[in-house]
Fold this protein.
Amino acid sequence: MLDDLFARIDGQREALVELTRELVQFPTVNPPGEAYKPCARHLGNRLSHAGFDVSYIRAEGAVGDSERYPRINVIARYQGRGPGPCVHFNGHIDVVEAGHGWSVNPFAGAIRDGRLYGRGTCDMKGGIAAAVVALESILAAGIKFDGAIEVSGTVDEESGGYAGVAYLAEQGRFSRPQVDHVIIPEPLAVDRICLGHRGVWWAEIETLGRVAHGSMPFLGECAIRHMGAFLNRIERHLLPRLATRQTAMPVVPREARQSTLNLNGIHGGQAEGHGGLPSPMVADRCRTTIDRRFLIEEDLAAVKAEVVAILDQLRHDRPNFSYRIKDVMEVLPCQTDRSAPVVRAVALAIERVMGRRPELVCSPGTYDQKHVLRIGHLDDCIAYGPGRLELAHQPDEYVEIDDLVSSAKVMAAAALRLLGAELH
């Protein structure tokens, strides 16, 4: 059965490439959430044609949802011949901005030297296309199974997934008995299974000052200088401590097995973008957003406390230092058990297709598994898909076409095993 199924998927190579190109050509840039509706409709029409029942679910009231940028998710379900488990393949249709440095049009889907280029080819429209072709091939082959298969294209993963998987999970769409196993085709490589990810705490920190004329800064209180003092202590004291903390989780790349902190952005003083020259003013506000990635061995309360301790010490050490801090996002680390059914099924499929045992890894950044576990309380969830993580969000992002085909075979074989189909 599997050899015939794999041959069928090989025969769909051009169709798999074309579906990936079609999805890439929708510039679903987040933020703000461009082209979600037409991309979801395109994916839904494809699955409807294959025999799936398709639903479109708008995350009304969710962060980011608006009439101009509606948060439209698509879910497709195919019910087998009788009751049984449901295997769900979930991928996000949103992508980050293209940025600069491309040698090709980021939304054209150029093909060169066996690679398909474009924003989202790797992260993760190639993975969505591979899952669709895998399941289409099972149905086209007439393979009978009990249970159900589902595919979803969800939004806003790049900004936390709250209008996508989180919203759907709150409706029971990622919980038993609706779903039993979840595979998320994130780009962790075709011979790897991703068990989970590090934790994340985003916080917005604002230093406060007092406005004055720029020629007489001694009459004011510069919030930017206060922020500089905070950043200096982060650089000199906190970052060296974080570099000494290591996790037993198999995070890739290896450099990400330590605690990290990034500054996602910073702004101080007058508003930008007006096109003219700024006024001579002492800045009374300066704001930064920190991105703290923490380990399964760390406690979230302690992670927060060490940042607050730096701010409080500055309030003691530095005259007129004042600040505000606000939580933006917090996600605990997670790691699926190596013996879980979905891990075993995908591992056996990788061995069959690739001829080698898979590497079990964890991701440095979070993805939508966090919502499946936290809200859906479903722990039989992993990430597996084509592409290399280090290419995500980069100029000239690409996916190897051979990897698209191989991953589709792995997903098809894993789905059948989880459904209890007879494999030979």
In short: The mean pLDDT is 96.
